[in-house]
Amino acid sequence: MDTIELHRRAVEGFVQRVAAITADRWGDPTPCTEWDVRALVNHVVGENRWTAPLLVGRTIAEVGDQFDGDLLGDDPIAVTREAAAEASTAAAELGPAGGKVHLSYGDEDTAEYLTQLTADHLIHGWDVAVATGGDTSLDPELVAAIGAWFAEREELYRGAGIVGPRVEVTGDDPQARLLAASGRDPNWSPP
After folding, report:
1. Domain boundaries, given as residue ranges, for the chain
2. Roughly how many angstroms between the first and final C-alpha of the chain, as a whole number?
3. Per-residue pLDDT tens over the stretch 156-182
4. DSSP state, 167?
5. Which alpha helices (DSSP H) does 95-139 contain, by range?
6. pTM as predicted
């Protein structure tokens, strides 16, 4: 499966999980201890808003702070859908050309950037689902692709503080192994 298709499927999966959030769950805790459900969704919406400008070659300085703060407004589900559609369209139209994007840590290959976004949508989709009582099963093909990709980057991400400590799991469940590698307890439930 190519990078654009992986990205599209992960974004769609995230949107489906957000669409299932009921009004009373937006303040619920998530496995990302610093974020409640609304803050976590806002984070991913922010990533989606950044996608198009970065893919056309803009720098972080050029974009500035326009995607800071609360991006969700009064209709977070509609905003999530809109931002996701914008990001998916940009990825489909601009991603195949390759090239570089300008990220906070330096220039990165477009395919690597889109894979990073895919991983974030996939893992944060699980975060949203487990926090709100939604469907926590992840697309097995996405889990396999991102699991293989992340295995090569796990220590780099952990060393940079991007993911928490690896959680020990038993068994051979690929989803549980990916979640554990990303610093999540696959058995997490809201307090």
Report:
1. 3-138
2. 37
3. 999 898 899 999 998 899 999 999 999
4. P
5. 110-132
6. 0.96
